[in-house]
From TrEMBL:
Keywords: Amino-acid biosynthesis, Aminotransferase, Branched-chain amino acid biosynthesis, Pyridoxal phosphate, Transferase. Pathway: Amino-acid biosynthesis; L-isoleucine biosynthesis; L-isoleucine from 2-oxobutanoate: step 4/4; Amino-acid biosynthesis; L-leucine biosynthesis; L-leucine from 3-methyl-2-oxobutanoate: step 4/4; Amino-acid biosynthesis; L-valine biosynthesis; L-valine from pyruvate: step 4/4. It comes from the Bacteria. GO terms for biological process: isoleucine biosynthetic process; L-leucine biosynthetic process; L-valine biosynthetic process. Belongs to the class-IV pyridoxal-phosphate-dependent aminotransferase family. It is an enzyme of class 2 (transferase). Pfam families: Aminotran_4. The lineage of its organism: Bacteria, Bacillati, Bacillota, Clostridia, Thermoanaerobacterales. Acts on leucine, isoleucine and valine. This is Branched-chain-amino-acid aminotransferase. It catalyses: L-valine + 2-oxoglutarate = 3-methyl-2-oxobutanoate + L-glutamate; L-leucine + 2-oxoglutarate = 4-methyl-2-oxopentanoate + L-glutamate; L-isoleucine + 2-oxoglutarate = (S)-3-methyl-2-oxopentanoate + L-glutamate. One of its GO terms (cellular component) is cytosol. PROSITE patterns: AA_TRANSFER_CLASS_4 (PS00770). The keyword Transferase applies.
Length: 294
């Protein structure tokens, strides 16, 4: 495979030479925001939604991105082109930039912008057929009163601790509850359950990222005319659901068949989930949903 070409602050570098300073506050403090985006069939899926979320997250942490949304989009498209990819997973990273060893951003005159276009597979292919096993993490989702989970910040320690718990017991994913014990989301995915034909996902305020895959799946549900509610729910509701699935850009959409040792529904990918996954895959390849790269 040819070496990946990486964008850093307006220049392109081969992966082996793509480097950021150890004084960058993204590295020293996790100070920054990022996006994970997919391209399907030569089009960036829901490009504007991702760019908008990046800029909103940056605003929330008082970080001014040193380029316009149009320039960011063009830099991303050019990075994908230089890597010759049609199907890709793209990472946009904007950190506070280089500063001194103190944490104050006022010593960081210029944010760092990095764009990586590569591929990703966070779960093995057979899990997309058979569903995955998840656990509930003992760590709770960051509270919105400390670090709002809506900000896709470079500080993923909360999620990483949850992932470590999952890894330790051989589960593919960890579910995070909020401070009140309500199901919030996973380490990199949103959660949906289905009970008696009604599809439910927690409202964003419970402590979830405003997932773009979540939005796409909700629009698919509405188009199909299926019963849907944004609703708070607990582990009790999750264990007793007929079906469960997770959504995320990297994960796409995937059935969940066991949580904390409880079999969900039939223990297989359920019929409503299967239909939604199928429709979701069609939408990802719908030309009207993507921005042309080439
Ligand atoms: N929650 C978290 C914590 C995430 O990191 C992600 C992945 N970006 C998601 C949910 C899913 O969001 P999206 O569908 O926009 O990728």
């Amino acid at each position: 495979m040819e070496e990946r070409i990486i964008y850093i602050d307006g220049q392109f570098y081969p992966k082996s030479e793509a480097k950021v300073s150890v004084f960058d506050h993204g590295f020293l403090y996790g100070d920054g925001v990022f996006e994970g985006i997919r391209a399907y069939d030569g089009r960036v899926f829901r490009c504007e939604d991702h760019i908008n979320r990046l800029y909103e997250g940056a605003k929330a942490i008082d970080l001014e991105i040193p380029m316009s949304k149009e320039e960011m989009t063009e830099a991303m498209l050019e990075t994908i082109r230089r890597n010759g990819l049609r199907d890709s997973y793209i990472r946009l990273v904007v950190s506070r930039g280089m500063g001194d060893l103190g944490l104050s951003p006022d010593k960081c005159p210029k944010p760092t912008v990095v764009i990586i276009a590569d591929t990703i597979a966070i779960y093995p292919p057979e899990m997309y057929e058979n569903g995955l096993v998840a656990i509930t993490a003992s760590v709770r989702r960051n509270s919105a009163s400390s670090l709002d989970p809506q900000i896709k910040s470079l500080n993923y320690l909360n999620n990483i601790l949850a992932k470590i718990e999952a890894n330790r017991v051989g589960a593919a994913e960890a579910i995070l509850l909020n401070q009140n014990g309500l199901v919030a989301e996973c380490t990199g995915d949103n959660v949906f359950i289905i009970k008696d034909g009604v599809i439910m996902t927690p409202p964003i305020y419970v402590g979830a990222l405003n997932g773009i895959t979540r939005r796409v799946v909700i629009s698919v549900i509405k188009q199909l005319g299926l019963p849907f509610e944004e609703k708070e729910f607990t582990l009790y509701n999750l264990y007793n659901a007929d079906e469960c699935f997770f959504t995320g850009t990297a994960a796409e959409a995937i059935a969940v068949t066991m949580v904390d040792g409880r079999t969900i529904g039939s223990g297989k990918c359920g019929p409503i989930t299967a239909k939604l996954l199928e429709e979701f895959r069609k939408v990802t390849r719908d030309p009207s949903q993507g921005k042309e790269i080439y």
